Amino acid sequence: MNIFGRDYTLVTLDFEAFFGTGCSLSLQAMNTYTYLDHPDFSLHGVGVKVDNGATQWIAPDVLEDELRELFDNADKPIALLCHNTNFDGFILHHFWGLYPALYLDTLAMSRGMFPNRKHGLKDLAERLWPGDPSMRKGEELVNFRNVTTEQLYGDPELLDSMAEYCIQDVDLTHAAFLRMAPFYPEDELEIIHLTTQMACQPLLELDREQLLEARDGWIADRQAIIDAAGVAESTLNSNPKFQALLEKNGVAIIEKADLQTGKMKPALGKADLGFQQMRDANPGLKHLFDGRVAAKSAGEIRRADRFLETASICGGRMPMPLNYYSAATGRYGGSEKLNVQNMNRGSALRTSLCSPDGYMVAVADSSNIEARMLAWLAGQEELLHVFRTGGDVYSHFATELYGRPISKADNPHERFIGKVCVLGLGYGQGHNRFRDNMAAGMLGGPPVIYSDQEARNVVQTYRTINYMIPLYWQQAQQAIADMYMGHDGDWGPLRITRNAIIMPNGMALQYPGLRTDDEGGFEYHNGRFWTRLYGPKLVENITQALSRIVLFQQMLDINRAITPHGGRVVLNVHDEVIAVVPDDTAEDDFGTMINALRTPPSWCSDLPLDGEGGISRSYDK
To answer: For residues 140 and 618, what is the distance between their CA atoms, to the nearest angstrom?
Structure first.
């Protein structure tokens, strides 16, 4: 098969393994790595199709020999195709150190082509062949629960059923790939390959001692705060019990609207404005509110335990599993209960990730890419000039807001307000939401209290200074109407079509079932419920999606440049590209990374971009 102008041997495969009580990926506490390490885990066999040949079932007693023969003696580089290649590809890595030249994945492709839908092979087959009942996934899997490999091979009828089930899955996966591939951008296929490499060919190592020390400190600090609260941890963790405790102490409970149901409920989340208002209004009960926050803040401890367990299973290396196209705008999501998309700067979860001997960790961070993209889309030339001349856009806005010169060094608080405004007000946020968000603490900063009029003035100042951005919201509102009416047409780097906007790389922002709502606006079904779509929201989607396209294209360019001499991109976290590079080329490779982040694609060649970062033995930027 020809992919990227190169001939590959296409190997489609699907491993079947024991699953049952206590040993299943459906269990909340188990991920791929703990599943493969479970004492009850065993491989029943694998279905393998080579190019367009007949799919074969391979039994476990000859499985390793057959796979090694295939990988070692193929006359062309192997492209591995699976439905959830992060799983099957990791099995090849973990047990036998087998690596294809290219990873392909129909599950990932489904996420990209059909965002906000279900992506199991059953769902994908029904979507691709709605009128063909012969193209359906079998339902026999339930028959194999708690069946050991020994039991399976002692029952010929059951074994035949499993082999047929597996072969059918392999054939469906192969057919689904052939059906989707002609419509899938090659660069996106390369991103799927790189994403799978991050999980299946780990390079980062874990500094166990550093993370153990940090985890033990977190446990001790958390317990001390809970003890100081003077009530049981179960009370602090329970919404009804904690609410009753507050009411017993005379606290007037503040409620908030549930974003999905619209119904009111107590504001008991630590980030809720109402929670913070109750805490501030009752300083004598600070120990209870602090205890509640501590009781609900065990996530870092649990993730530290998972990091330590995963590294132990994987020989000290840390896979970086990500869900490709997790968001409708194309961004990654966390996976395998490790959530490597969410590691705070300075956290030991992050700094404990280290390069192997002879290598460095190089981090390049794209500077303000969404703010730059929004200014470029809207044609906000004054803001673009600040970016082009290397100015500080946050200080620039704060200077306008306060009517006096603001700098990062001399006015950190005012500049922080400028940062919150630049990053938060470009998508139509009104003064009420801005006021409440500032009071709750934005971007990890302290709560800032504004009166209604002060918040209104801030928002109006932003919209007056950046006058082209509200005009772009209006264009976006018209684009929604055009999508609804099916009026095709170009809009800057985008193309409007029915219920979708086609982006420069061929992918699409999709709004299934777009319709008018009872208030004269528009809504679409996001896969779970109907949600409003309006001009500023569409601008947010477009800005994030295009920023992702730019950053991921740069990530591919970086990877192509550093792989010939042994480097590789190993992770993306929001606007950061993280690579492992050899010691002797680290400085040059880092320079290559920064230059890539400063180079826009041809469709936005005048977009001013910049990047910063550094090199270290660990991911400590």
So the answer is: 46
pLDDT in tens, 1-55: 888 888 999 999 999 999 999 999 988 889 999 999 999 999 999 999 999 999 9
Decide: 90 and 315 in contact? Cβ < 8 Å. Answer: no
Q: Assess if residue 317 is contained within a domain.
A: no
Examine residue 514 and state whether it is found in any structural domain, yes or no. Answer: yes
Q: Is residue 270 included in any domain, yes or no?
A: yes
Residue carrying the six token digits 């098969």: 1
Residues 261 and 178 in one domain: no
Q: 536 and 573, same structural domain? A: no
Please name which of 237, 87, 247 lies closest in space to residue 169, comparing C-alpha atoms: 87
Domain range for 131 is 2-202
> Helix count (H) and strand count (E) of the chain?
24, 24
Q: What is the pLDDT of residue 272?
A: 86
* Same domain for 183 and 67: yes
Strand arrangement, sheet containing 102-105:
56-58, 43-50, 9-17, 78-82, 102-105
* Domain total in the chain: 4
pLDDT tens digits for range 410-420: 899 999 999 98
Tens digits of residue pLDDT in 448-479: 888 999 999 999 999 999 999 999 999 999 99
Mean pLDDT of the chain: 94
pTM, 2 dp: 0.93
Is there a domain that residue 313 lies in? no
